[in-house]
Amino acid sequence: MPAFTDKTSAGHFFEDFRIGQTIRHATPRTITAGDVAIYNGLFGGRFAVQSADSFARAIGYPGAPVDDLLVFHVVFGKTVPDISLNAVANLGYADCRFLKAVYPGDTLSATSEVIGLKENSSRKTGVVYVRSRGFNQHGGCVLDYVRWVMVRKRDEAAATPGDTVPDLPKQVSADALGGSCPAIKGDAYDTVLAGSPHRFGDYQAGEKIDHVDGVTVEEAEHQIATRLYQNTARVHFNQFTESKGRFGRRLIYGGHVMSLARALSFNGLGNAFHVAAINGGRHVAPLFAGCTVFAWTEVLDTAEIAGRKDVGALRLRTIATKNQPCSNFPRMQGEDYDPAVILELDYWAVMVR
Amino acid sequence: MPAFTDKTSAGHFFEDFRIGQTIRHATPRTITAGDVAIYNGLFGGRFAVQSADSFARAIGYPGAPVDDLLVFHVVFGKTVPDISLNAVANLGYADCRFLKAVYPGDTLSATSEVIGLKENSSRKTGVVYVRSRGFNQHGGCVLDYVRWVMVRKRDEAAATPGDTVPDLPKQVSADALGGSCPAIKGDAYDTVLAGSPHRFGDYQAGEKIDHVDGVTVEEAEHQIATRLYQNTARVHFNQFTESKGRFGRRLIYGGHVMSLARALSFNGLGNAFHVAAINGGRHVAPLFAGCTVFAWTEVLDTAEIAGRKDVGALRLRTIATKNQPCSNFPRMQGEDYDPAVILELDYWAVMVR
Amino acid sequence: MPAFTDKTSAGHFFEDFRIGQTIRHATPRTITAGDVAIYNGLFGGRFAVQSADSFARAIGYPGAPVDDLLVFHVVFGKTVPDISLNAVANLGYADCRFLKAVYPGDTLSATSEVIGLKENSSRKTGVVYVRSRGFNQHGGCVLDYVRWVMVRKRDEAAATPGDTVPDLPKQVSADALGGSCPAIKGDAYDTVLAGSPHRFGDYQAGEKIDHVDGVTVEEAEHQIATRLYQNTARVHFNQFTESKGRFGRRLIYGGHVMSLARALSFNGLGNAFHVAAINGGRHVAPLFAGCTVFAWTEVLDTAEIAGRKDVGALRLRTIATKNQPCSNFPRMQGEDYDPAVILELDYWAVMVR
Questions:
Q1: Which residue of B5, B79, C186, C280 has the fewest CB atoms within a 10 Å radius of its CB?
Q2: B36-68 per-residue burial string, b: 16 or more CB within 10 A, e: under 16
Q3: What is the pLDDT of residues A307-345, one digit of tens each?
Q4: For the segment C25-80, what is each residue's pLDDT rounded down to a tens digit?
Q5: Do residues A296 and A211 make contact, with C-beta atoms less than 8 angstroms apart?
Q6: Scanning every residue of chain C, which has its alpha carbon at the shortest distance from the alpha carbon of B51?
Q7: Which of C8, C224, C238 sits opposite B209 (nearest CB)?
């Protein structure tokens, strides 16, 4: 009679990964109106396209699509047990494109391809680069992005393949945007119902927008969100273990900050109804329950999308802070980030023209 | 390159309002089975009509309708960015009528008409009276109510129009009730499944009912609820700012207390399945997380509804308290409210005969 | 004018029950995709059958079924106002069988039959044994189980019927399992998507599995869950009263621990997609918010199900602990339970062969 088991998964360690390896992730997930409602209850989004079937239909969608970041979080969540269960830190994102709209009833699954590996000089950890993709039940790719993450080695002495660092684009080309956004009937786009009179042409590069409001995060909220995505990263849920760890408390999933900042950004960017791509993102510092999150955005660029007269694209850099309002647009202090900054997210939003 | 922006909304101030002005509010909202489930998880309602499609269909509804107060909160939430973002206090409600049942899948939008304005003698604030209306996606009015709220002036010196105080009914006429309640098949109304043997004829004016149970409110709960309604009032969400404010903590949305009291009232009013109208309401004192809410109800009146033999109406005054059970029916202490009282709500409930 | 009312229910006391009495419980409940989403957000289940319509359909279900324990909790919740509102302790479960799969849109109702009564020697309390059954809207029995609970007497001096203690099976026969599990197309069961390579034949009696992860419970989480089930037991919600009680705090619904342990058990039992029966369960010690729950499982038995080549049954004993990881499989300390143990659950899970 065996007293022990090898049935549980301990996740992969750095030396387990190989360039070109493709991993099909577990647990396909049907996104329902229930998931959308919980996401609304947790973040309070007010973009009319995602909020109302009638608004979405009037402008050309078949119904209200699922919020882009909810799609991101669900796909990301699937990758965790295989990619980042033994991660020390989530280092960055690149070339993230939302390729097809997702609607309630769609089922998402995910794969990741290992595209880079670089052992750290300590030999205790290495950086794993993966291109992850989310698919709907018809096999259509809804999301494609690169993530790199620092992963522990199981055994410091283990041999690892030579270093391969992928060449990643600094930004997604504007002409690659909009695949998941149908042709928008501009005449039917009611800016009063949408909550903002400002259309694409009203924004210009260099413009800074303080989103004003702040929102305090509770433990129950981020746990519910992160479980909703079936993200199993242990640091978010286990106070017993974390109380003995580096921070003494549960760490909030970085994606939670992305969603909070996106919801706050409605005040100033009310017609930026669709996140089309993420050029890059950095979780600058951790967030803990009890902190209040604020955000501000700089318009980095404005771009037309080839062949489209209905919508344009704003390249935005949204900064989220903790316990510091953003009226003075905090970002850097010399060479370092302002200590209040927790997230820097560089993304393309589609806005009605 | 502009360093600042005027893209964000600071809400309206007292001097911005004009009598007769009509405001179309932003962010239409499709109410789904997901919203209903979250509402159930937050309040635990047990009225069978709203809980079970099969029960609702048996008695004459096409399916379980959305809880009346959830409809109220969603419509109310839409009015906040335009009416009460700069409010000091929500003063009262009148003439609130639920006119059409709302079902999952319906999309709600809202308008408000300014029907009264009265500057306060301090000249720092004024009272704004609005008639707000909620509509479904077919343009049908589902809810119509008057609210008055004390709003800050942007500029004390600003000129304001002369005072206009609307004449408001003390109560909704019983004959105006029931528009959102279909003809009920009394024979199919199973009082065992409904959880109470007491029908309309069993109640009489003057009767007092202690609802016995108490429920403690957590920060995560009221935040999730209030965001679900897309209510953006800042005092509910921002501990950073509120910690420096009058109470030192986040204030719970007054409507949260209404829903808690309504859910508690099931124990004693199990067949009062529909809130048909709110005659008046007063948020007597603030509620904070960690407090336990109790409630009791006095039957103020019983009324037949013209032309209806299926249901009658109970005029109810529900009192909610914090940290004080209601077995001795607390309400006034001399001229003042008992300090435990947080809500007084005068409403008409429809009950099966 | 009456000052008091008898409209509220105080629940039943021990002397109110009679052998053979059948109680139809109140508040039928339609289970929606919203309820499923909240359940996912609270427990983070990863069993692919319940998570994805596409996975469920591929293997023979008409769509993703509702999690078995969510069905259990909803049916259990209905019994509380009639059976255990005046309970001192929930003592045990036996002969619990999941008889029909439940899908979103189904409406559940419940009945209980009193099958045993035994007064305690103190004459202050007695044990009530009930067989409770849950039904769908077509009258089909979806769940059948026995529960016994210690209930207060209203009046110590009240006469009670003689003792009747039912003869209860120690376990559900394996051949009685699987009624709610359709014929599974084994070829279509994708173990990569399911998240575990281990099928029925890979498990053997005596095997112990540490589920590794821990999850900390927040007050808001267990309150939302327990209200979702319309479970009205007061100890879970009322801090005002509980602060003066035995533990000084709200007690978490024992079923919450069952669901946490079941979700944790995915790591090691990923293909045990269906709880077919509960042989017995014991809430060994109370759980409070702030504690972290861990779990481990011993395979007690493996059994074929008569006539089925698609699935087999594992008899599992899952132990949940608080604030103690389970790598050394804690259960007993001499004759007593290890003080960290809070739940022992003996159940049959169906696993693909």
A1: C186
A2: bbbbbbbbbbbbbbbbbbbbbebbbbeebbbbb
A3: 999 999 999 999 999 999 999 999 999 999 999 999 999
A4: 999 999 999 999 999 999 999 999 999 999 999 999 999 999 999 999 999 999 99
A5: yes
A6: C29
A7: C8
Assign C5 a pLDDT band (cuts: 50, 70, 90). low
Q: Which chains touch B (3 or more CB pairs under 8 A)?
A: A, C
Whether B223 and A263 have beta carbons less than 8 Å apart is answered as no
Q: Is C4 on the interface with B (CB under 8 A)?
A: yes
> Which residue has 């850099």 as its token pair?
A317
In the numeric block, the tokens 């009920």 are attached to B184
Q: Which are the contacts of C209, defined by CB distance < 8 A and separation ≥ 6?
A: A5, A7, A8, C265, C268, C269, C296, C297, C298, C299
- C268 and A5: CB-CB below 8 Å? yes
By percentage, how much of chain C surpasses pLDDT 90?
95
* pLDDT band at C9; cut points 50, 70, 90: confident
Which residues of chain B neighbour A220 with C-beta distances below 8 Å? 218, 220
pLDDT digit string, tens, across residues A90-142: 999 999 999 999 999 999 999 999 999 999 999 999 999 999 999 999 999 99
Contacts of residue B230 in chain A, CB cutoff 8 Å? 40, 44-46, 51
Q: How many CB pairs lie under 8 A apart between chains B and C?
A: 152
Tokens of A137: 């039940």
Beta strands in chain C (DSSP E): 22-24, 29-30, 87-98, 107-119, 125-135, 141-152, 208-210, 215-216, 274-283, 292-304, 311-322, 332-333, 336-337, 341-352
Answer left, alpha or beta for residue A171, where phi above 0 means left and psi between -120 and 50 means alpha. Answer: beta
Residues whose CB falls within 8 Å of the CB of residue C187, separated by 6 or more in sequence, listed in order? none
Instruction: Please state the rounded mean pLDDT for residues B5-25.
Output: 93
Chain C residue nearest residue A111, CA to CA: C193
**Scanning every residue of chain A, which has its alpha carbon at the shortest distance from the alpha carbon of C36?**
A34
* Chain A closest-CA separation from residue B174 CA (Å): 34
Tell me the two tokens of residue C6: 């008898």
What pLDDT shows up at residue A308?
A: 95
Minimal CA separation from B32 to chain A, in Å: 6
**Option in A9, A226, A241 nearest C214 (CB):** A241
pLDDT at position B272: 98
SS3 B227: helix
The string of DSSP letters for C273-298 reads -EEEEEEEEEE-S---TT-EEEEEEE
What is the rounded CA–CA span in Å between residue B29 and residue B140? 15
Token representation of residue A36: 């959308």
The pLDDT, as a whole number, for residue A229 is: 98
Q: What is the pLDDT of residue B5?
A: 62
